[in-house]
Amino acid sequence: MHSKDTNAKNITTQINEPLFHVTKRAQISWQKSWAIRIIAIASSLVICALIIVLITGLNPLTVYSAIFDGSFSSERKIWNLLRELSMLLCVSLAVTPAFKMKFWNIGAEGQGLVGALASAACMIYLGDKLPNSNLLLVMLLSSLAAGALWGFIPAYFKAKFNTNETLFTLMMNYIAIQLVAYFVLLWENPKGSSIVGIINSSTGAGYLPVIGGKQYLLPILIVALVTGVMYIYLRYTKQGYEISVVGESQNTAKYVGINVKKVIIRTMIISGALCGLAGFLFVSGIDYTINANLIGGLGFTAIMVSWLAKFNPVYMIMSSFLIVFLDRGASEIATDFRLNESIADALTGIILFFIIGSEFFIQYQLKFRKRGNNK
Predict the structure, then answer these.
(1) What does the pLDDT average to over 279-303?
(2) Which end of the chain has fewer CB within 10 Å, C or N?
(3) Are 163 and 123 in contact (CB under 8 A)?
(4) Does the 75-323 domain belong in CATH 1.10.3470?
């Protein structure tokens, strides 16, 4: 009788066993991980092709060619691609130390804006008082300090009072936007235009030097240097190690003698300062002006770049390129084929969805029930 009860329980267990279950991968080779990503990209292109045919009747290959042309069909477009890539990469590098520490810094937009505001103020008030080299140095230090302060404030309250850093940094964005809006009205040129216009257009005071006739080359080189420094900092320094440990477990960090509060504050100061650097580059080397939309949402896009690259600065170059390439391609599709830009953005979103979704299959695997268990 006992044997019959046991068999009945086994049969019930087998029947109730799910068709598949999710398990975390112990380890996966880089070849296999990239194979998964390539399959995801190929799948997204097939889905997008079907949508293009059903909605527009266009040849998908022609549309994909336009995506490529959006970035590489002329020298001007190539430089614009590199400019946008470098600025997105700069902000992504800025948020990475905080996110690796699991401090959810949603305030990169505001930190970059106050950095830009500091540079613009130096250009306006000191442009005719200092030599350009000295002015640029003052602008850089001011932007770094302003961004660092904007990062320090939420970090201090997090370390001291355990406040919610996501809401705190998000609210700091709105304060920065309103500060910039106030000074735009104060500095507007001409009066009543609600824009500052190109600052020091007649003198060029506070402008980064143009190398080889390429306006964006120096900002791109600066971001490349920051990328290398950040890679070394996160991977090979004691502070980078402390960031990793705090991100894994604050209790473990405390156990091994790491001052968690100090690491939080220090890391957010660095994060804010790098956002301030991005603001400096926008004002002194790219736009030469200030407005509330100067950063253009890069603070939020940078979060996706950082997570896609798994907080690796080198991989961030590739993920930044992918996002900028698709964004410029979407604009080109909308222009060339006179499509609603929402359709072009939807195609970009589908491709990004598949790429982000592929990370799930890199981290986890599906294990299906064996056939014998169906009996």
Answers:
(1) 95
(2) N
(3) no
(4) yes
